[in-house]
Amino acid sequence: MRNEPSITPAQVSEHGLSQDEYQTILNVLGREPNLTELGIFSVMWSEHCSYKSSKYWLKTLPTEAPWVICGPGENAGVVDIGDGKAAIFKMESHNHPSFIEPYQGAATGVGGILRDVFTMGARPIANMNALRFGAPEDARTRHLVAGVVAGVGGYGNCVGVPTVGGEVNFDAAYNGNILVNAMTVGLADADRIFYSAAAGIGNPVVYVGSKTGRDGIHGATMASAEFDDATEEKRPTVQVGDPFTEKLLIEACLELMATDAIVAIQDMGAAGLTCSSVEMADKGGVGIDLDIDKVPQRETGMTPYEVMLSESQERMLMVLRPGAEATARAIFDKWQLDFAVVGRVTDSGRFIGRVAGAQVFDIPVRPLVDESPEYERPWVKTPAPQPLASVTAPMTHMAALQALLSGPDLSSRRWVWEQYDNSVMADTVRKPGGDAAIVRIHGSNRGLAIATDCTPRYCLADPHQGGAQAVAEVWRNLTAVGARPLAVTDCLNFGNPERPETMGQFVGCIQGMGAACRELDFPVVSGNVSLYNETHGQAILPTPAIGGIGVLDDLERYADLALSRHDDQLILIGESSGHLGQSIYVRQLLQLQDGPPPPVDLATERRNGDFVRGLIADGTVDTCHDLADGGLLVAAAEMAMAGDIGLDLEGPDEAGFWFGEDQGRYLLAVPGAIVDSILQLAEKRQIPARTVGRTGGQALTLNAGAPISLSELRRSHEAWLPDYMQSA
Amino acid sequence: MKASVIVFPGSNCDRDIQVALANSMGGPVDMVWHGETEMAKTDLIVLPGGFSYGDYLRCGAMSARSPVMREVVARAEQGVAVLGICNGFQILLEAGLLPGALLLNAGRNFVCRDVNIRVENSQTPFTNGYEQGQVLRIPVAHHDGQYFADPDTLVELRAADRIAFRYCGVGGDEDGAAGPRDNPNGSIDDIAGIFNDRKTVLGLMPHPERAADPVHGGTDGRGLLASLVSALA
User: Fold this and answer.
1) CB burial class (10 A; 0-12, 13-18, 19+) of residue B182?
2) With bands split at pLDDT 50, 70 and 90, how would you rate the model's confidence at A216?
3) Would you give the end-to-end CA distance of chain B in angstroms?
4) Where are the beta strands (DSSP E) in A531-675?
């Protein structure tokens, strides 16, 4: 081992390690680490890589179902979707880098999640995202929106994977800490899934992709700390993406995966070569020897520390079958990508690095993974919200509708999604703007539906209900297009877990999510945790973003939200209690953030959803929209605007009825001739159902009041975001 | 009929056009790697959409110098039909097979949406299946799609009926220019696609292969492929 100066307590804390954690390192090694070893421990034991604050709770989530092929723990989750095919998917955060450098932060977030998916043998077929920005009035918001959207598009468009949907929200709680959560769904043969466990003593360890540079060193550690004024100085720790190389890497890896050359494969994401090597060795119960000189390097004079901790993008690590090097090398040469045998699998159980034959680190693999800290952080239950005082409507319902549809929360996101290529791969069935996106399973008449959702203001008021609602809403989004929901990925964005109040939000959300996943048979198969989302002690709203997938067995039978016929009846499914607590209505129009969020009754959710899905599957219903932010009137207006067909609505003259956000509800538009049979069937199943209007004309009318023309409504709905982005 | 799709590093609509063409032709389509210097006999060469070479340097500039492009240019000179879609259009311009340039969109952002285009010349191998003046609804998806040509070139394009498609409103705007949202990239004279003088080379920004199947929500792009099948069979 090289002689290096002793590690100082300052170096330990600069690496984000506590003195207790450092003591554990001393015990594991039986000696003092050198700087490279300290760096390796620090990234492996960072919150980002070790889940040290969260894993105790993550273990409580349901992860199994007969259709789950691979749950959490691998690069992404794998679900059997029938016909010998599997969907592989995951959502991941790239929050901190995106705040510092929005274009590259967002772009590399997309790149990273794509790699997690194709690493397992899947061709990526769809991207989604969930973006949360600060208040529109905040000086940085416009710049961050522009950069993040361009970055998401810039990467996904070039790689040629359609971005089929997502969410964009604004809230002052994200002023200093935006959220960029990216999700990729891939398609693979169910019997050709690739895993990361290294095996075969003596087998070559191969590095492919881009060269290693000095970018992104300590990204994982950065993602595990709060922001302060020095954060700007961390700009060099943001990685730079090259989607062109990623595209080549996808094609080269899939070409190699069609042979039998690969034993194990893992992408280099957070903590780069260190994390990929260690995880592969640990999962396989083997050791790995690396020749650091052989790692392709973009810059000269890189130290082993820099090579091991670099987060340069578009790189993969593989263990190949003996003798397969030539086949593999030829494929990567063809795609003009670096290919280097950088090490061997060993039986030592140790992770050893050498430079010019001399050892520069030597760490036992098992303890590096197993002895990583795990904390059961203290937490306090979030106090129950105060009830909402009685609400007096501040304006007519139609004026309120117009205000909501043209405000930051509910205005059209077209400005965003027109910057994403949503139709490349020529399998996009339903484009952004609906409840769930639908992509065709290539070469078949079946489809995958994909949705992301979360309502952070509900989670803040009542984490348990909010966590359950996020899962239930994704399930409902998938159901509303007619898909059978299969599984979810989660991206858990919270503040500093060392604060008991924040940890209480985390625990509450996890418990709510777990309850909903269990009740809805909707297991969690992959995910990511992003903590320390705070700036100057101001935490973000608790934001457990959920991404779900479902399957459509027949693309002839799915539902769209756009009204498509005149003289249809609009049927409301589900109970409307007029719940206005935490609604967009009281938040935007009355500046009230009071009251409990709408409760989620999971049994009702399931009963109502199964009923609606059945009507779509048997061809009875082809027009459906689930009710969410803004309630009934907003949902009805969205259906009218999408289909360019008006609506005459009738119902109680109460704000709660039209704008309440009660859960488990859907709107169906059906021909008059079948209304009675649907209502009777609903009654038989004890599902509340009633007609609330009739389609026709070119305007929206409520209880025979003054109409608003659809063109007028659409103009204000479409205008807010482009106007906001253009006003400097 | 035999058709070949060139695959450049970074092409990403190669499979899409392969599938759409194979459906129209009822037979297989050859995929040709950009590094090839020879190509089997073929009646149609397609340069697909994508981000070949990452759009680095200039869109299409590096691909235009790929080994296979010498052969593509030679075949085009012999009269073999060549179709360039989106990035393929950019490559055709860089290779000198079509005149003009494609600049950054006027809105300075990537734009992906369905647009209306009007068939300006239905007397060609690419468009014989459409009516003159027919309005098609087909998606665009590009960052650098603002067609530009100098005044002399524009005069020549108009005079020789070399403008294949123009962006237009739903109704076709027979009497005037497209509205501001109808022309998605600020192209001069609303030009969405042009021919060479012999009408054997077509470059266009919209993606007909993405409007070629009922699940796409429209099949207006199929006519272009069907035209080629009927002209070249």
Assistant:
1) middle
2) confident
3) 5
4) 534-535, 538-539, 543-552, 568-573, 624-626, 647-649, 666-671
**Stated length of chain A:** 728
- Which residues in chain B are contacts of A427 at CB distance < 8 A? 215
Amino acid at A632: L
CB atoms within 10 A of CB B26: 8
Give me A598's structure tokens: 């709408």
CA distances from A61 to A468, A507, A521 (A): 12, 11, 12
**Domains detected in chain B:** 3-232 (3.40.50.880)
Residue A641: closest CA among A724, A714, A585: A714
Give the HSE-up count for residue B202: Cα atoms under 13 Å, Cβ half-sphere. Answer: 30
User: Which pLDDT tens digit goes with each residue over A88-116?
Assistant: 999 999 999 999 999 999 999 999 999 99
- Token pair 């975001």 is found at A721
Residue A327 vs residues A204, A238, A257, A308, A579: alpha-carbon distances, Å: 13, 35, 11, 27, 63
Contact in structure between A28 and A371 (CB atoms under 8 Å) = yes
Which one-letter DSSP state was computed for residue B178? P
**Are A244 and B50 inside 8 Å of each other by CB?**
no
b (16+ CB within 10 A) / e for A653-690: eebbbbbbbbbbbbbbbbeeebbeebbebbeeeebebe
SS3 for A551? strand
Q: How many CB atoms lie within 10 A of CB A314?
A: 28
**Which helix (H) or strand (E) segment is B78 a member of?**
helix B67-78
Q: Judge whether A48 counts as a catalytic residue.
A: yes
Residue B177 phi, psi (nearest 5): -75, 160
CA dist., res. A406 & res. A417, Å (int): 17
The two tokens of residue B52 are 């070949």
Interface test with B, best of A424, A440, A554 (most B CBs within 10 A): A424
Pull the structure tokens for residue B18.
């392969």
Burial track B86-118 (b if 16+ CB lie within 10 A, e otherwise): bbbbbbbbbbebbbbbbbebeeebbbbebbbbb
Active site residue A94: yes
Set of chain B residues whose Cβ sits within 8 Å of the Cβ of A248: 9-10
Helix (H) or strand (E) holding A529: strand A524-530
**pLDDT tens-digit readout, A233-283:** 555 667 889 999 999 999 999 999 999 999 999 999 888 999 999 999 999
Distance CA A539, CA A179 (A): 12
The Cα–Cα gap between B4 and B44 comes to 6
Nearest alpha carbon to residue A570 among A665, A435, A675: A675
- Among the partner-chain residues B20, B50, B209, the one whose CB lies closest to the CB of A160 is B50
**Is A566 in contact with A480 (CB distance < 8 Å)?**
no
**Report field, pTM of the whole predicted structure over 0.80:** yes
Task: Choose among A301, A281, A300: nearest CA to A290.
Answer: A281
What's the whole-number mean pLDDT along residues A119-138? Answer: 97
CA-to-CA distance for A362 and A354, rounded, in angstroms? 9
What is the ipTM metric for this complex?
0.96
Q: What is the CA radius of gyration of chain B?
A: 16
Phi-psi domain of A359 (left: phi exceeds 0; alpha: psi -120 through 50; beta: other): beta
